[in-house]
Description:
With 248 residues, this protein is α/β, with parallel strands linked by helices. The chain has six helices and eleven strands.
Amino acid sequence: MKILVSIKRVVDYNVRIQIKQDGSGVATEGVKMSTNPFDEIAVEEAIKLKEAGKAEEIIVVTVGNQQAQEQLRSSLAMGADRAILVQTDDEIQPLTAARVLKALVNKEKPDLVLMGKQAIDDDCAQTPQMLASLLDWPQATFASHIEMAEQQATITREVDTGLETLSVDLPAVISTDLRLNEPRFTKLPDIMKAKRKPIENLSLDDLNVGIAPGLKVLKTSPPPVRKAGIKVESAVELVSALREKGVL
């Protein structure tokens, strides 16, 4: 089985986000960038499937600028076999990303596509569903447990009422949730080996995919500063304060 895993370069989750002064977006200059955490979980799950003898090859792919090679190398160090960078400096929205991935699926012919359920920079959570629709493949979203059998995957996902179990025929698109696994720590020898693994560079033109933004961001602004709270000495004082604010 061949597994294709998509990842995205995002601002590291430990970084405090800063908005550009002109409101045009998030400041990224000099900011630490990392692999989207949900995508790291997808890479880890693919590696576990390979270690269990359920997969033969793992291809990790991303769409982004030249610096995104850093995140591809991290995935290669974890255990992916090869990588593909679709290089562009333009902003990639979910539908364009799905179209790029569809073209890569047609090129590589994987049996399974693993993706993080969402990216922490835009929180859209749309690309896996769009890709499955474009491919006309079965999909299972927000997977917290995956079991593979002959040409079939059984997925457990968390829903409001508890746990839901789905069975999908392969090939399929599966998006990963937070509790699926804990990505491994990469060791120095693995990082050195990853430098020798191949990264294929493609362009949007190579895949015959054009950028057609469907969304336009007018302005980005930080949330309003919250007013300081007050401390009350009794329930009576609390009720009085709430009445003054019109809550009661």
